[in-house]
Amino acid sequence: xxxxxxxEVESRVRETREKRYENQPNGYELGMQLLFATQEHVSAxxxxxxxxxxxxxxxxxxxxxxxxxxxxxxxxxTKDNPNFSEANALEVLNSAKSLTNNSQIKQRVDENxxxxxxxIRTQAxxxxxxxxxNFSRIMLNTAFAFMTCDGHIHKKEIDLIRxxxxxxxxxxxxxxxxxxxxxxxxxxxxxxEFLKDYFKMVDSAELTEHEELQLAExxxxxxxxxxxxxxxxxxxxxxxxSLLNVTDKQIKDYVPDIADEFFERDIFSHSYLSQxxxxxxxxxSIPSFRKLNQREDIGVS
Length: 301
What we know:
Elements lengths: L1 H21 L4 H11 L1 H8 L6 H26 L7 H14 L3 H31 L1 H14 L6 H13 L8 H15 L1 H13 L4 H16 L6 H12 L5 H7 L15 H14 L18
């Protein structure tokens, strides 16, 4: 009786292993099929209370190890695919853990579960970074930052951003109003920290000269859209300007008729920039902005 159970389980383990070698991405299905196919066998083997108990435990360990490997192979071969399921990978691994009392196998399961968690966390970070440093989004964040840096959102600024993004292929497929409302929610939640994060984004992004010039043009046009330029906006632009590598002449050539007040000469020493940064953020406050669909003067595009 016991020998028959052992032979049946070992046979199914070998069969699953062969199938796994041939089709590793199918590890989830293979692992779960093996688990369900041997449930009654495992239950019977665990009930054994005799000298053959050690043998039965060893067989169960072989079974758990194969199911664990099915989960590992599934993860490794499908994690970069759109149809990858973290839940499926964890289900197989945890099923293997539930079968055995072997501390080494349990530890291996825990280590692989942690590995999946680390990968998921890294993927989320990479996704956010890619989204953050996507140039079209840096452009939109630039327009938004310069629109809000004076503590107001003017209808003319919204109209300008809508016009620029509609005409620019860079923003094809992006719902600008939805993105702007998301940014409004962000700045309402974070306040001035939102604008500090914007500067960190520009400073960290690897931009070409042409991209820097495009950002400068977007910043200047947004600042001038409401036909007023206050001292805080000038300070904000100076901080932004210090993060660019292009020259004043390049900006002037790219943005014709730009006012000289944007290029008042300053030596951007570390102490000067620190003082400029502290001066702006120490004296500025950001109100809570209404979303676009809550403003009758703006409307929905």
